[in-house]
Specification:
There is one protein chain. The chain is α/β, with parallel strands linked by helices. It folds into 2 domains: 5-282, 3-Layer(aba) Sandwich (Rossmann fold), CATH 3.40.50; 291-418 and 475-544, Class I glutamine amidotransferase (GATase) domain (Rossmann fold, 3-Layer(aba) Sandwich). A 9-stranded mixed sheet has the order 13-12-14-15-25-24-23-20-21, with helices on both faces. The chain has a 7-stranded parallel sheet with strand order 5-2-6-1-7-10-11, with helices on both faces. Strands 16-17-22 form a 3-stranded mixed sheet, with helices on one face. α12 links the parallel β12 and β13 (324-332). α1 (19-31) packs parallel to α3 (73-80), α5 (117-133) crosses α6 (153-166) and α14 (361-374) packs across α15. The longest helix is centred in the N-terminal third of the chain and has 17 residues, at 117-133. The radius of gyration is 25 Å and the shape is globular. The N and C termini lie far apart (59 Å).
Length: 554
């Protein structure tokens, strides 16, 4: 293998243009050409990682297999490529870079020299970029933020320096911009893109490719004008219109405009053409569903849809696998507390996702109770498992007032409690006592789960043991397991060495499954995930029933 080559993706004009989707899609197309591709996301905020950031501001925290709490764009990367799984090194922030440099300064690594942005901060950024490139043909580096923001300047300066160090033929710069259309004037405006490129060139970076986001495909004359005023060759001005159906169209759209050919030509690579048959099948399945079903997601972070990004994508993937268009009704858990569960009466399945804190938790418990009593397919994830266990303990096992110590530390029946010790995937013992700060104190990352031979989960997975990712501090209290099992709840999965409850089921129910882990992090559009695939299949069966069947007990 020769020198690793780097593609830097930047954004201009406005934020939220879809740099993460473009980055992941380009990686998917290059991977389809037989290249080994890795991806890095550089985030400009001062937080060390997204783990303690509000879902309302930052959206979902994506957890990698090695337990890193990362930006949600890493979820896109994993969903689009198969050749590598994301890890701690695939995402870093300004805060983590400064933290490391300050640690080195305190240790005396700089031998008393004045520590500055250049070279010390930029050297640390370059070190991390290079580390991600080891063993890969191409690394695509997504730079968070918008060109012109003060926060991202050290990242762009590091990219400029890296181009000088490894040579222009080993680096490529792709700039994503917005080309708006003014409805009142009926005109497409290129000036914002021109100014964005001017800003980029002012810091020494000339883009090789422009990807222009717009409502509709850009006419050839507009692309020619942009090329003229930005010093970018016209074939490298890519028009990327809004996709009406799905983000999974983007790999095909970029390939149709020869973006991957531009990369191969720039880097002088000898590789096959892109085989995008699987992606075309995904798009076909989305465009031609055989049926429709409706599910409810009972959550608490509904003001920002990105708070449940991997979850909503996993549902789309399950729809693809079941040839079903899944309509999602988002239900605020607090609404159920105040108004009851009538809003759930017409849905074909109920999903209660993860979360933290007391707000809306009783509503999630009500959702689990409604699904149990009305025999509606139920999938509980993390907090959704807690809700199901608490409902069952209170209303079936006779443990009045049962609760989680996260919500009520003085509860008489703490059926959910703080997990204090477990073994990680390497066999190392991890311990927590609840006195640490919030950052990095949870059970995080991939853990092995042993499935009961008679369980529905075993049937769905088709495996004796599975690897799934965790992000939580609280678990089912094993003291109460005999009681809830006696009353009809089954433990479908346990941790490999610690005997922690990982999955529960209600065998008397048509389809009632809850898991402590987050299966959504392992779902992808081409492969789906067994739990979500089974959940949507159950929703379809429930929709076909003439009337829902009520069951009073577990």
């Amino acid at each position: 293998m020769g020198t690793t080559q780097y593609i830097f993706v930047t954004g201009g004009v406005v934020s939220s243009l879809g740099k993460g989707i473009v980055t992941a899609s380009l990686a998917a197309v290059l991977e389809a050409r037989g290249l080994k591709v890795n991806i890095l996301k550089m985030d400009p905020y001062i937080n060390v990682d997204p783990g303690t950031m509000s879902p309302f501001q930052h959206g979902e925290v994506f957890v990698t297999a090695d337990g890193a709490e990362t930006d949600l764009d890493l979820g896109h990367y994993e969903r689009f490529i198969r050749g590598v799984r994301m890890s701690q090194q695939n995402n870093f922030t300004t805060g983590s870079v400064y933290d490391e440099v300050i640690r080195k300064e305190r240790r005396g690594d700089y031998e008393g020299r004045t520590v500055q942005v250049i070279p010390h901060i930029t050297d640390e950024i370059k070190r991390r970029i290079r580390a991600v490139g080891e063993g890969f043909d191409i690394v695509i580096v997504e730079t968070g933020g918008t060109v012109g923001d003060i926060e991202s300047q050290p990242f762009l300066e590091a990219a400029r320096q890296l181009r000088l160090e490894i040579g222009g033929r080993n680096t490529m710069f792709i700039h994503l911009t917005l080309v708006p259309r003014l409805a009142t004037a009926g005109e497409i405006k290129t000036k914002p893109t021109q100014h964005s490129v001017k800003e980029l060139r002012s810091i020494g970076l000339q883009p090789d490719v422009l990807i222009c986001r717009s409502e509709e495909p850009l006419p050839k004359a507009v692309r020619a004008k942009i090329a003229l005023f930005t010093n970018v060759e016209e074939p490298a001005v890519i028009s990327l219109q809004d996709v009406a159906m799905s983000i999974y169209q983007v790999p095909v759209l970029l390939n149709e405009q020869c973006l991957d050919d531009l990369v191969v030509e720039k880097f002088r690579l000898d590789c096959a053409s892109a085989d995008l048959l699987e992606w075309r099948r995904v798009v076909d399945a989305l465009s031609s569903p055989e049926r429709t079903t409706e599910i409810a997601i009972v959550g608490k972070y509904l003001d920002l849809p990105d708070a449940y990004k991997s979850l909503t994508e996993a549902i789309i993937h399950a729809g693809i696998q079941n040839h079903t268009r899944v309509e999602v009704r988002y239900v605020d858990a607090e609404h159920l507390e105040q108004n009851g569960c009538d809003v759930l009466a017409s849905v074909h399945a109920i999903l209660v996702p993860g979360g933290f804190g007391p707000r809306g938790f009783e509503g999630k418990i009500l959702a689990a109770q409604y699904a149990r009593e009305h025999n509606v397919p139920y999938l509980g994830i993390c907090y959704g498992l807690h809700a199901a266990v608490i409902d069952f303990a209170r209303h079936v096992a006779g443990l009045e007032g049962a609760h989680s110590t996260e919500i009520n530390p003085e509860t008489e029946h703490p059926v959910i409690g703080l997990v204090s010790e477990w073994h990680d995937l390497t066999g190392e013992t991890q311990q927590r006592n609840g006195d640490e700060g919030l950052g990095g104190t949870m059970r995080l990352g991939e853990q092995r789960c042993l499935l009961d031979a008679a369980s529905l989960a075993r049937t769905l997975y088709g495996e004796e043991a599975v690897l799934e990712r965790h992000r939580h501090r609280y678990e089912v209290n094993n003291t109460y397991v005999p009681s809830i099992v006696e009353h009809g709840m089954a433990v479908a999965g346990r941790s490999d060495r610690d005997d922690l409850v990982e999955m529960i089921e209600l065998p008397a129910h048509d389809w009632f499954v809850a898991c402590q882990f987050h299966p959504e992090f392992n779902s992808s559009p081409r492969d789906g995930h067994p739990l979500f695939r089974g959940f949507i299949a159950a929703a379809n069966r429930h929709a076909d029933q003439p009337q829902p069947t009520e069951i009073a007990a577990g």
